Amino acid sequence: MTDDKPPSKHRLTGPSIFSQLGSGWRSLQESMPSNCQLTDSYPYAVRHNPAAYFTSVRTACYAQDVPLGSTPDISARFTEITPNVCNDTHDCPIETGDNWLSAFVPKILASAEYKAGNTRLVITWDEDDYGTTNHIPTLVIAPSTVAGSRYGGALDHYSLLRTAQQLLGLPCLENSCSAASMRAGFNL
Q1: Chain-wide mean pLDDT for the chain?
Q2: DSSP SS3 for 79
Q3: Are 178 and 155 in contact (CB under 8 A)?
Q4: Is the full-model pTM beyond 0.70?
Q5: pLDDT (tens digit, 9 = 90+) per residue, 49-58?
Q6: Which residues are paired to 80 by β-bridges?
Q7: Are strands 25-29 and 78-82 parallel, antiparallel or unpaired?
Q8: How far apart are CA 76 and CA 64, in angstroms?
Q9: For 133, what's the count of Cα atoms within 13 Å in the CB-facing half-sphere?
Q10: Is 137 in contact with 125 (CB distance < 8 Å)?
Q11: Distance CA 56, CA 82 (A)
Protein backbone atom coordinates (compact mmCIF):
# COMPACT_ATOMS: atom_id res chain seq x y z
CA MET A 1 0.00 0.00 0.00
CA THR A 2 1.26 3.46 -0.81
CA ASP A 3 -1.57 5.57 0.62
CA ASP A 4 -3.36 6.12 3.93
CA LYS A 5 -6.76 4.73 2.89
CA PRO A 6 -8.69 2.63 5.42
CA PRO A 7 -9.34 -1.13 5.35
CA SER A 8 -12.57 -0.57 3.40
CA LYS A 9 -10.39 0.53 0.45
CA HIS A 10 -7.68 -2.10 0.96
CA ARG A 11 -9.22 -5.49 1.72
CA LEU A 12 -6.08 -7.57 2.03
CA THR A 13 -6.77 -11.27 1.56
CA GLY A 14 -3.28 -12.74 1.43
CA PRO A 15 -1.30 -14.37 4.19
CA SER A 16 0.27 -12.27 6.94
CA ILE A 17 2.25 -12.74 10.11
CA PHE A 18 -1.12 -12.59 11.86
CA SER A 19 -2.54 -15.50 9.87
CA GLN A 20 0.71 -17.42 10.35
CA LEU A 21 0.44 -17.09 14.14
CA GLY A 22 -3.27 -17.87 14.56
CA SER A 23 -4.08 -16.93 18.14
CA GLY A 24 -0.40 -16.30 19.01
CA TRP A 25 -0.38 -12.57 18.27
CA ARG A 26 -1.61 -9.38 19.84
CA SER A 27 -1.80 -5.85 18.52
CA LEU A 28 -1.97 -3.01 21.04
CA GLN A 29 -3.19 0.29 19.58
CA GLU A 30 -3.01 3.48 21.62
CA SER A 31 -6.23 5.55 21.64
CA MET A 32 -8.17 2.98 19.59
CA PRO A 33 -11.76 3.30 20.86
CA SER A 34 -12.77 -0.34 20.31
CA ASN A 35 -11.21 -3.64 19.31
CA CYS A 36 -10.11 -3.84 15.68
CA GLN A 37 -11.36 -0.34 14.87
CA LEU A 38 -11.51 -0.12 11.05
CA THR A 39 -11.76 3.68 10.80
CA ASP A 40 -9.82 6.61 12.18
CA SER A 41 -10.80 8.11 15.50
CA TYR A 42 -8.26 10.82 16.22
CA PRO A 43 -5.66 10.40 17.62
CA TYR A 44 -5.98 6.73 16.59
CA ALA A 45 -5.07 6.21 12.93
CA VAL A 46 -6.14 2.91 11.39
CA ARG A 47 -3.40 3.23 8.74
CA HIS A 48 -0.90 2.35 11.49
CA ASN A 49 -2.80 -0.81 12.46
CA PRO A 50 -1.84 -3.55 9.97
CA ALA A 51 -4.03 -6.29 11.49
CA ALA A 52 -7.17 -4.29 10.65
CA TYR A 53 -6.47 -4.62 6.90
CA PHE A 54 -6.32 -8.42 6.64
CA THR A 55 -9.78 -9.85 6.05
CA SER A 56 -8.58 -13.42 6.66
CA VAL A 57 -7.94 -12.60 10.34
CA ARG A 58 -10.90 -10.29 10.94
CA THR A 59 -12.50 -12.54 13.58
CA ALA A 60 -9.16 -12.84 15.40
CA CYS A 61 -8.67 -9.10 14.97
CA TYR A 62 -11.75 -8.37 17.09
CA ALA A 63 -10.26 -10.44 19.91
CA GLN A 64 -6.53 -9.78 19.56
CA ASP A 65 -6.26 -6.21 18.19
CA VAL A 66 -7.08 -4.22 21.31
CA PRO A 67 -6.63 -0.76 22.81
CA LEU A 68 -3.28 -0.23 24.52
CA GLY A 69 -3.76 -0.13 28.27
CA SER A 70 -1.55 1.43 30.92
CA THR A 71 0.26 -1.90 31.42
CA PRO A 72 0.97 -3.57 28.06
CA ASP A 73 0.26 -7.30 27.86
CA ILE A 74 3.13 -8.69 25.79
CA SER A 75 2.54 -12.34 26.63
CA ALA A 76 1.63 -13.34 23.05
CA ARG A 77 4.32 -14.87 20.83
CA PHE A 78 4.25 -11.65 18.77
CA THR A 79 3.00 -8.28 19.97
CA GLU A 80 2.82 -5.19 17.79
CA ILE A 81 2.36 -1.89 19.66
CA THR A 82 1.43 1.38 17.99
CA PRO A 83 1.30 4.77 19.70
CA ASN A 84 -1.30 7.28 18.56
CA VAL A 85 -0.42 9.93 15.95
CA CYS A 86 0.58 12.42 18.63
CA ASN A 87 2.86 10.12 20.60
CA ASP A 88 4.42 8.73 17.40
CA THR A 89 5.59 12.32 16.63
CA HIS A 90 3.51 12.57 13.46
CA ASP A 91 1.14 15.29 14.67
CA CYS A 92 2.96 16.49 17.78
CA PRO A 93 6.51 17.65 18.56
CA ILE A 94 9.33 15.11 18.81
CA GLU A 95 9.55 15.94 22.52
CA THR A 96 6.04 14.49 22.95
CA GLY A 97 7.12 11.19 21.40
CA ASP A 98 10.33 11.17 23.41
CA ASN A 99 8.35 11.65 26.61
CA TRP A 100 5.96 8.85 25.64
CA LEU A 101 8.83 6.45 24.86
CA SER A 102 10.68 7.35 28.06
CA ALA A 103 7.57 6.36 30.05
CA PHE A 104 6.58 3.35 27.91
CA VAL A 105 9.86 1.51 27.18
CA PRO A 106 10.63 0.91 30.89
CA LYS A 107 7.30 -0.95 31.14
CA ILE A 108 8.46 -3.38 28.45
CA LEU A 109 11.93 -3.75 29.95
CA ALA A 110 10.41 -4.44 33.38
CA SER A 111 8.09 -7.16 32.03
CA ALA A 112 8.55 -10.81 32.96
CA GLU A 113 8.85 -11.65 29.25
CA TYR A 114 11.75 -9.27 28.68
CA LYS A 115 13.50 -10.24 31.90
CA ALA A 116 13.26 -13.91 30.88
CA GLY A 117 15.11 -13.08 27.64
CA ASN A 118 12.10 -13.93 25.48
CA THR A 119 11.41 -10.46 24.13
CA ARG A 120 13.11 -8.30 21.55
CA LEU A 121 11.94 -4.71 21.37
CA VAL A 122 12.19 -2.99 18.00
CA ILE A 123 11.13 0.64 17.71
CA THR A 124 10.82 1.97 14.19
CA TRP A 125 9.15 4.82 12.38
CA ASP A 126 7.22 4.70 9.11
CA GLU A 127 8.36 7.89 7.43
CA ASP A 128 11.79 8.76 6.15
CA ASP A 129 13.93 11.85 6.48
CA TYR A 130 12.96 12.87 2.91
CA GLY A 131 16.59 12.45 1.86
CA THR A 132 17.75 10.46 -1.13
CA THR A 133 18.75 7.48 1.04
CA ASN A 134 15.37 7.17 2.80
CA HIS A 135 16.63 6.85 6.38
CA ILE A 136 14.25 6.09 9.21
CA PRO A 137 15.30 5.55 12.81
CA THR A 138 15.05 1.99 14.09
CA LEU A 139 16.15 0.93 17.57
CA VAL A 140 16.76 -2.69 18.60
CA ILE A 141 16.72 -3.47 22.31
CA ALA A 142 17.32 -7.04 23.42
CA PRO A 143 19.37 -8.78 26.11
CA SER A 144 21.56 -10.28 23.37
CA THR A 145 22.12 -7.00 21.49
CA VAL A 146 25.29 -5.12 22.39
CA ALA A 147 24.62 -1.48 23.23
CA GLY A 148 25.58 0.77 20.33
CA SER A 149 25.25 -1.97 17.69
CA ARG A 150 24.75 -0.66 14.17
CA TYR A 151 23.82 -2.44 10.97
CA GLY A 152 25.90 -1.41 7.97
CA GLY A 153 23.55 -2.50 5.19
CA ALA A 154 20.15 -1.38 4.00
CA LEU A 155 17.07 -2.52 5.92
CA ASP A 156 13.38 -1.87 5.38
CA HIS A 157 10.06 -2.84 6.94
CA TYR A 158 10.24 -6.19 5.13
CA SER A 159 13.54 -6.78 6.94
CA LEU A 160 11.74 -6.31 10.23
CA LEU A 161 9.01 -8.74 9.11
CA ARG A 162 11.57 -11.32 7.98
CA THR A 163 13.44 -11.03 11.26
CA ALA A 164 10.25 -11.49 13.27
CA GLN A 165 9.31 -14.51 11.16
CA GLN A 166 12.76 -16.05 11.69
CA LEU A 167 12.67 -15.47 15.44
CA LEU A 168 9.22 -17.06 15.60
CA GLY A 169 10.17 -20.02 13.40
CA LEU A 170 7.77 -18.97 10.64
CA PRO A 171 8.37 -19.18 6.89
CA CYS A 172 8.88 -15.92 5.03
CA LEU A 173 6.06 -14.40 2.98
CA GLU A 174 6.34 -12.68 -0.39
CA ASN A 175 8.57 -9.57 -0.09
CA SER A 176 10.02 -10.62 3.26
CA CYS A 177 11.68 -13.61 1.53
CA SER A 178 14.17 -11.37 -0.27
CA ALA A 179 14.64 -8.85 2.56
CA ALA A 180 17.80 -8.63 4.62
CA SER A 181 17.48 -10.09 8.10
CA MET A 182 18.37 -8.05 11.18
CA ARG A 183 19.32 -11.13 13.26
CA ALA A 184 23.08 -11.26 12.71
CA GLY A 185 23.56 -7.48 12.79
CA PHE A 186 21.87 -7.19 16.19
CA ASN A 187 22.77 -10.64 17.61
CA LEU A 188 19.11 -11.68 17.81
Answers
A1: 94
A2: strand
A3: no
A4: yes
A5: 999 999 999 9
A6: 27
A7: parallel
A8: 10
A9: 6
A10: yes
A11: 21
